[in-house]
Specification:
alpha/beta; globular
Length: about 200
């Protein structure tokens, strides 16, 4: 089933942050594949870390196969290691992992975070903190396949309880159990209406 033929995002590209592991649960691979395909069918491009590794490779491969446009942001050392995907329509080569995050953030109109490891958490909290500070108002959606992000939600609520995170900041992002729910949230243009933490932040 095709999702909405067009979803309006500015820019019309979704950043995908996810695991590079090849040994995640098959259900996680399947969800990544479905999401990659759905984004292409909705007329949205995909920007990601630009490699063939694990869940990144599966999701980007499905996107390309469905006619999507792939933008890869790849640090030089990964290009030298020979893991840059051959499927990329556009390659943005950067020097560092920090540069990679910045470039992906600029290219994206929304962020979808699939199950992942330390790099994925780094990317998630980076875009969350920037949104909290009022530096962007782009949708941030966690794909909660197999309840992967339930422990993170428990940690966030723990932080609220201890007054290190404000309860209102839990609205900076949303959870989706399926790729279809991700697409519905993107179609609604989900974005939290929260005053920036620092007054005068753009």
């Amino acid at each position: 089933r095709k999702h909405m033929s067009k979803i309006s995002l500015t820019p019309p590209v979704v950043a995908i942050y996810c695991a590079s592991s090849k040994t995640v649960d098959p259900a996680i691979f399947k969800a990544g594949e479905e999401l990659g395909k759905a984004l292409a069918e909705a007329g949205l491009g995909m920007v990601y870390g630009g490699t063939t590794c694990g869940l990144m490779g599966v999701t980007s491969g499905a996107h390309k196969k469905a006619g999507g446009r792939l933008i890869g942001v790849v640090p030089s050392f990964m290009v030298e290691a020979g893991i840059k995907s051959p499927l990329l329509d556009e390659v943005v080569q950067v020097e560092s992992m920090a540069d990679r995050k910045n470039a992906m953030n600029q290219q994206a109109g929304a962020f979808v975070i699939l199950p992942g490891g330390l790099g994925t958490f780094d990317e998630l909290f980076d875009v969350l903190a920037l949104k909290q500070l009022g530096k962007h108002r782009k949708p941030i959606i966690l794909l909660n396949t197999l309840g992967f992000y339930e422990p993170l939600m428990a940690l966030m609520k723990h932080c609220v309880k201890h007054h290190t995170v404000k309860e209102e900041h839990l609205a900076l992002f949303s959870l989706a159990d399926t790729p279809s729910q991700v697409m519905e949230l993107l179609a609604r243009g989900f974005t939290a209406n929260i005053a920036p933490k620092i007054r005068g932040a753009s």
